[in-house]
Write the C-alpha cells for this entry.
Amino acid sequence: MIPTAVRLGPLPGWLILWVAFVLALALFARRVWFLVRLLRLGHWENRFDRLPERVKRVVTYVFGQLRLLDEPLVGIPHVLIFYGFLVFLVSTSGMLLQGLLPNVHLPSVEENRYLAPVVDIFAVLVLGGLAVSSFRRFVIRPAGLQQTVDATVVNIMIASLMVTYLFVEAFGMIAVPHESGIWLPAGRWVAGLAGKSEFLRAGAVSFHHLFWWMHVLTVLGFLVFLPYSKHMHLMASPFNVFFSQLDPPGRLAPPAQAEKLGAENIPEFSWRQLLSGFACAECGRCERVCPSHLSGEPCSPRELVHNLKEQLLRYGPAWLNQARPADEREPSMIGGLTAPAALWTCTTCMACVERCPVLNEHLSIVVDMRRRLVERGEVDARLDEALRNLGRYGNSFGQSERKRAAWTQTLGFKPKDARKEPVEWLWYLGEYACYHSGLQEITRSLARVLQAAQVDFGILYEAERNSGNDIRRVGEEGLFELLREKNTATLRQAQFKNLFSTDPHVYNTLKNEYPELDHGQHGVYHYTELLWDLLRSGQLKLKRKLPYRVTYHDPCYLGRYNGVYEAPRAVLRMLGVELKEMPRSRRNSFCCGGGGGRVWMEETRGVESRPSENRVREAASADGVQFLVVACPKDHVMFSDALKTTGLEGRLAIKDLAELVEEATTVAVEVECTA
Amino acid sequence: MNILVLLRMVPDVVEELELAADGKSLEQESLRMILSESDGHAVEEALLLKERHGGTVTALALDAPEMDDALFTALAKGVDRAVKITGLEPGLTARGAAQILAQVMATAAGLLPADLILSGTQAIDDLDGSIAPLIAHSLQRPFVAIVVQVAMAPSGGTVTVVKECPGGVRAEFEVQLPAVLGIQAAEKPPRYVPVAKVRAAAKSRQIECLPAPAPLEPPLVEVLQMMKPVVTGHATMLEGPDEEIAGKICEILAERGLM
Amino acid sequence: MAGNIWVLAEQWRGRLSEITYEVVALGSEVATALGVKLQVVLLGHKMKGLADTLGRADGVLYVDHPALEEPRVETQSAALAQLIQAQQPRCVLIPLTNVTLGVATLVSAQLQVPEISFCQDLCVLEGKLQARCVLYGGKMEVLVTAVREPTVFGIWPGARPAEKGRAEQMPAVEEVAVTLPEALPVRFKRYIEPEAGDVDVTQQDVLVAVGRGIQSQDNIELAEELAQALGGAVCGSRPVIDQGWLPLSRQIGKSGAIVKPKLYVAAGISGAPEHVEGMKNAALIVAINTDPQAPIFNVAQYGTTADALDLLPLLTEGIRKAISKKAGPS
C-alpha cells in the first residue's frame, strides 16, 4: 500500500513525487552552493589539522549536545528535538525512497520491530519538546530570543511533520489492521481516537495516503526552506564545530595579512568566521551571559554574529558578481551594521564563547574589527593615551620605566635581579601589581611570603614591560608584536627555570602567545599554582587557620581561558577558610568588566549597573561572606571601586589570595577586624 | 599648499631629571628625549591643512635620540618628507637651533619656499628664545604665536588664524602668506597612528640626512648653574582615613569663616 | 637715558594686567640695586591714562600709534626695538603672557641682543645681572647671565607681589614717537569671547577646581556638590576644558582666568606652572592629589593624598552638616 503506487489524477504518484523531489533537491542544492560560494569569499584559514580531535568535538558537542544543557529548561527539549531529527532523518528518508521506487521493496524502519517504536515514541517526545520550547518562546519570552517569522515557521513545520507521521501510522493501522506485533503506542492511541469516527474509518486508506503525501511534501518543503532560514544552523553547525578552534582560546590568531590589519569587509574575514553566521541559531545564550550587555552597554555577541551573516547575505552577491569595482561593492561593517561602541565595550571575557552550543568564536570577530579601528586610528582619547604610554614607557600609567620596581623600596629586602643572576622562579609581575598604588602592598605581601618560604625568585626590575595581552585584544597588534619582541629578548637573556605571574592576563599571553619562549624548558604558572605547590609540599608552613567565610571570583583569564580553577580553591581550603561558591562560578564566572582594555577606555555614561557592581552584589548576597577573594590585580581594583559605588563597603571586603596566605603564614600578624 | 614643520626634541619630564657632574646641565644617561608637545600639535595642524587643501608637508628636524621614531611616526601619519639635521653640537640652545634651521632651509633644496612654516609656539627648554619667532625674523615673514586654529582663505593668499589670549578670549588675525605660525594646539588632538604603520614606515620610508653647518655665533647666554628647584613652601599634609581628613578640612574652613 | 632698566607694560584691551606690576616691582629692585632709573614702556593708542598707575617707576615712555591698539606681536616688537635702539637701556623686562609671547624674541633677534626667558627672579651680582629661570615645566632651575647688553628678559608670572609694583604717586610720562609700516601683513580681525558662562570665575569667593585626576565628566558632579555646599563654583585646569568637560569660561591658568578667591580647592590637579599662574594668589588653597610629588603641594597651604573621588563627597557631607548645625534650632 505504497501511496505513490496510486495515480493522482492523470499522473502516477511516483512521477509527481519524483518531480517534487528533484525540484526540491535542485533548489536546495542551488541555495547551498550559493552559501558555500559566499563562504569562499572569506580568506583562507587552516582548520583542517588534527582531524581526530575535530571528529571528537563533533561527537561531544553535536551528538552529545553538551553545551545545550547549560540552560536545562530549553536544553532538554532541544536534545529531544535533535535526536528526534536524527531518528526521523532515517525514517523519512526510507519513506521517501520507497515512495520514489514503489515497485521495489525496500527494507523500512516501519517494518522493523525494534526501530519502529523508537520513531513512534520520538514523535511524541519531539512534540513534547516543541510544546515546552514554544511555551518558552511565545509565552515566557526570555531576553535575547528574537521573535522571528523564521522561528514560527520552523516550529510549525516540525510539529506538522510529527503530527502527519502519527496520522500516517494511525490510518495505516486502521486501513490494514493486522497484528504485526510491533509496539507502536502513540500510533495506536491516535488510531484509537480516529477509529471512533465512521467517516475516518471508511476513508482510512485515503487519509493514510493524504497524510503520507503531506508528510513527504512538508519534508521536501523543509529541505528547500532550510538554507533560506536561520534553521540552516542545522547543516552549518556540525561543520562549525568540526572546524572550531583547537588552539587554546588564549592564543589569538595573528592577522591574516600584514598590510592592512583587521577586518571590516567580507573578504577580510576568514571563511570560518563567516560560517559562524550560518551556524548561529540565534538562541541568545551568549547575550544572556555577556557582562557588558547585562550592564546596558551596546555590546551583544549574538548581534555581532547575526550582523556578520547579514553583511554576507546582503553584500556577498556583489562580490560574487563582481559587477561593481571592489571599493563600491560593500559598505564597511564597522559603523554600518556594527557600531564601534559595540566593539569597544567587549571585555573579552569569553563567557559567550564558553556558552555557545555551536562553538562560535565571537571574540576573534571582535578583535579583528578592533584591529581595523586601530588601523584607522579611531580610538578614544583615553585609549589613545594608554597606548602611547604603553609604547613609550611599557606601561599604561605613563610612569617612567625606571619606577617599575619602586614597590620594592619599602619591602625590607631586595629581590634578586633576574637580569643579572640565575633564579629558579622568575616573577613577571605585570604593570598593575607594580605601579598601582592601591596594589603595591599586596605585591609586597606576596614577596614576603615567598621570601619566608625561601623560594628562589627574582624579578626583572626596569626591564619588565607590559606583556601585551590586553594590547593585543584591543587590536593594537603592531604594539603587541613590538613588546613581545622586547620581552622575549629580555627573557632570553635571563636565566630561570620557571615563570609565574600575579596577573592572569600576563599569565595567559606568556603561556599561549609567546612561541619564542621555550615552553619545553620553562613552565609558565599563575602565582596561585605556585602557592598551592608551596603549601602542599610544606615549603610554606601554615602558622594558623583563618576563621573566615569567603567567596572566590574566578578571573576570566585564569579560569575560562586557561582552566585553572582548582589551585586557588585548594589554597583556600588549606588556609582553613569556609568557601562559599557564588552562583556564577568556575566557567560561569562573571567578568569584573576590566578586561579587553576596558580599564583604558572612557567609561560609558549612564550605564545601569557595571559588571563589577553586579558581581559584588552577587558576592554580598551570600550569607555571612566577609571577603571576596580575588587572584587578579584588575579584579581587585574593579571590585574595590564597585564596593564604594554600591555602598557595600561595610558589608564586604576584597582580599587578594596573597594577603590571606600571608596572614596565615607569618609569625606575628595584626588580624584585620572585619564587620 | 606647501607646509614645513620644524621639530625639536626636549627632555621627557616623566623621567626624573638629574644634574650632570658639571652642575650646569642635565645628566645624559637618565635622560630621555621626547618631541616637544606643541611641535607634535604643529604636525597635526599641518596634516589637517593638507587633508583640507592638498599640498605637501615636510618635516625638518634636529637630530636627537629617538628623533627617528618621531619622524617615522610623522611619516606614517601622512607627512610627505622627513629631513633630519645631523652632526649637531651638544648643548645647543633654542637660538643656536634656530640659526642652524634657518641656514639649512636656505641652502637645502626643496625646503623653501613654503607657504606656511609651523612649529610649536614654545618648548620647555626655550631659555634664549623660541624657534618660531626666530625663524620668522630670519626669513622676514609675518608671525603669530599661540595659534589654535588655521583656516585657509578661499582666495589663497592669506590664512585666518586664531590665537589664544588671556581669560579664555581668542583673537582672530588675517595673515598674508608666506607666514610662520607658532602652534599652541592643533584643532584636533594629534591623531593616533598604530605601531604597525610606524614600523612599516621605518622599513619603507627614508629620512633624509643633512649635515649641520657650523654655528654662526656662540650663544649669547651663559648658564652658570643648574639646580633642582628649592621648594620654599609646602602644604601641611593631612593624613589619616578619609573621614578624618574631611573633618580636619571642615575645621580649617570653619576657622577661616568660609562656611 | 642709557643704562636704565626698562619694563614693558602689558597692555591689553585698554587695561594693564597684574603681571605688569609684578615686573615693575622686580625692575624697581634691580634699578635701585644698580643705581639707575626704572622706566616703563607703554604701547597703545589713546591710552595715556593707563600710565597713571605706574608711579612706582621713575618715568613712563608712552608710544601712541593706531597700529598698537590691537595686540600684534610684530608691531609691539618693532616699536620697542626702535626705542631700545634710540635710548639704549641696560635691560628690558618683558612679562611672559599670551599677549606678549614672541615680543622678547623678536626684539632680541632684531637687535641681535641676548634674550633670557622663563625668569623667576633677577638679581645684581658684582654689577652684573643674573637671572634665575625655570625650565622643563618647573623641574629644574638655572642661573643665567647674558654675554652683552642690552639684554631682554622674559619674566614669568609670580616674580614679585603685584602690590609692590603699585604706588600712589603719578609718574612722569614722556610721549615718544615711532614709525611703523602702513600695510601690515598681520591684520587683526576680531576677538572671540568665550561663551558667556552663567558664572564669572573671577568674581567667586570659593572655587572648586578639577583636573585630570577627576577621571571622567561624571565625577565633576562631586565637585559641583561641594561648590554648592560652599556657595562657590566649579572651574578646571586646561586638560578638563580641552576634553570638553567644562566650558572655556571655567578655565583657570595662563590661557584662562586669573583668580584670587578666598578658597581654592584643587582636586586632581597636578599643579603645572600654567595652571598655578592662574590661582597661586588665592587666600587659602587646599590640594587633593594622589601623587605626593605633585607640584600643586608647593603652592597649597593644606594638602592630602586621599583620592578626590572619595574625599569630595565626604567633605560635602561634612560641610552640609556643619552648616545645618549652625543654622540649627535656635
